[in-house]
Design brief:
Helices cover 37% and strands 28% of the residues. By secondary structure, it is an alpha+beta fold. The protein has 2 domains: 168 residues, Aminopeptidase (3-Layer(aba) Sandwich), CATH 3.40.630.30; 158 residues, 3-Layer(aba) Sandwich (Aminopeptidase), CATH 3.40.630. Strands 1, 2, 3, 4, 5, 6, 7, 8, 9, 10, 11, 12, 13 and 14 form a 14-stranded mixed sheet that branches. A hairpin with a 2-residue loop joins strand 9 and strand 10. Helix 6 packs across helix 12 and helix 10 runs antiparallel to helix 11.
Length: 372
Amino acid sequence: MAIEIREVSNYKDIKSFVNFQYKLYKGSKFWVPPMKKDEINALIPEKNPAFKFCKAKFFLAYENGKLVGRVGAIINEKYNEKTGDKLVRFSRMEFNNNPEIAEALLNAVEEYGKEHGMEKIHGPLGFTNLDTQGMLVEGHDHIQSIASVYHKDYYKEIIENLGYEKENDWVEFRLTLTDRPVKKAIRGSNIIQKRSGFDVLRFTEKKELEQYSETVFEILNEAFSDLPYVIPFDKKLRELYAKKYLKLLVPRFTYMVKKDDKVIAFVVGMPSLSEAMQKAKGRLFPFGIFPIIKALKKPEVIDLFLTGVLPEYHSSGVAVILFAEIQNQMQKENIKFMETTGIFETNQNVISNWKNYENIQHKRRRCFIKNI
C-alpha cells in the first residue's frame, strides 16, 4: 500500500510527531531521549523564536493507517542570506526500515522547497546550530551524548540510494585522561598565564553564571560565524537557550578566561546525563529528575558540551588554560573519561589536540545534500 504523507496541522499531530521517536527507539541501549516538552515547543511558532526567520512545515508518514515516519522542512532565511544559496533543510527525520517511507518523506520536503524557490535540500539540520544536527553514520554501538544525536543504522544507505551526497561530517571522540596530557596541560597553562596575563574565572554557584549568559553568546557569535549552518543568536534565541541549558550547568565544570577584564573564552563541561536521561524517559517529573540529580553529583564521564574562543585569541593558547582547569577538576573527582561534541572533520587544529590523549574517534555524523 502507498505511503500517505500528512502535514502536521494541530497540537495532536505535534504530539504524534514527537512521540514517534520514542516508540521507534524503545528499548535501545544507545539512544538518549530528549525532553518531550522541549521537542514539542520547538515545533510551535509561539514557543520557538527561530520561526521569526525560518519557514517550516512538518510531515507524518502513514502506512495502512499506522504512523511509520516523520520529517520536518525548514527554510532558514538568515542562513540562505549568509551563503547566497537557496536551501531547504530536512530535519528530525525518523522512519521505519522501508526505503519507500524515506522517499515519500523527503519528496514532501523537496516539494516544499521547490514551492518556495529553493534549489537544494540538505540535512538533517535543525533551526540553528544548537538544534539537532547531522545523521549518525558511524558509532551505532556507543551511547549518545545529550549534545549529539542517534539514528538507526539503516538510514545512511537508504538516504544515499535516494541520491543524497555528503556535504559535511562531524567527528566525535572519547578521551581518556592519563598523566601525560594532564601534566602537559598544567605546564602549558602556567606558562601561558604568566606570559599573557590571562585570568581564570571559576564558579561555585549557578547564580554566578547567569551574569555571563550574554557574554557567552557574544563569544559564540564571533567564534562560530564562519562555520557551516551557523547564524548569529539574536536576543530571543539567547534567552531561549540560556533558559534551556542554564538549569543543567554544573558550575565546577564551567570556566572562563579574562584578559583586561574582558571575557575572551569559555568552556562548559557537563557530567554525562546519557544514562540518567534514559531513565527519565523524556520527562523530568515526577521521577525523571532524580537520576539526573544523581548523575550531576557523581559523574563517571564528562561531556565537553561547548567551547568558545574569540577569533583574535585562537592562537594565544587560551584553550590550553581551559582544558587544564577542567582536567584538574576531573582528577579531583577521579573521572577518567571525556566525550567531545561533534567537530568538523576538517578542523585539524582541534583534532590534533585530541591526539595527546588516549583516544578513540568513535562516532561520525553527516549532513547530506542534493539538488532538487
